[in-house]
Amino acid sequence: MFAAAVLFLFACAALAADGIPRKAASCIICHGAGGNSTDPAMPSLAGQPAQFISTQLYLFREGNRKDAQMTPIASGLSNADMNELAAYFSSQKPAAPSRKTAPENAAAGRRLAEQHHCVQCHGPALLGLQHIPRLAGQQFAYLKTQLRGFKAGIRYDTDGNMTSAVQRLSEADIEVLADYLAGLK
Description:
There is one protein chain. By secondary structure, the chain is an all-alpha fold. It folds into two domains: 81 residues, Cytochrome Bc1 Complex, Chain D, domain 2 (Orthogonal Bundle), CATH 1.10.760; 80 residues, Cytochrome Bc1 Complex, Chain D, domain 2.
């Protein structure tokens, strides 16, 4: 246990030396180096709008959005910490998508994104805007989980737009749309 604590402290010191906020050390464990997740269940933070990141951290901290991992982490963050983390991760370059959209899903996914007005909130290239997240290049499994959560009404939705937008998506549509989004740059 002591050895793990010492290693964590050395890692924090190395991060700080590289200009990475010290508080980012716990983020990188799940969200990947530079905020580029390699875990299928975890979103990438790199290139997300800063306002989106800070808003989500605030929602976790205040208990509006609940997650067994994120809620305890966010509970120890000040507003200044949240803004610093948001600025850092939003300035990081997103990695190339780890998934290539299946050819049969490219046109169908684009059509679903248009029919369900994804670009109206998430931007023309689905890179996110202000408090709305980047969808392009996110992990396939993560996208499916979030879409299913919105559809079931269990994923926190500030204004109800996402819950409303996904209601007509079938399970097959969710698979196609998530595949399409995961393959976008």
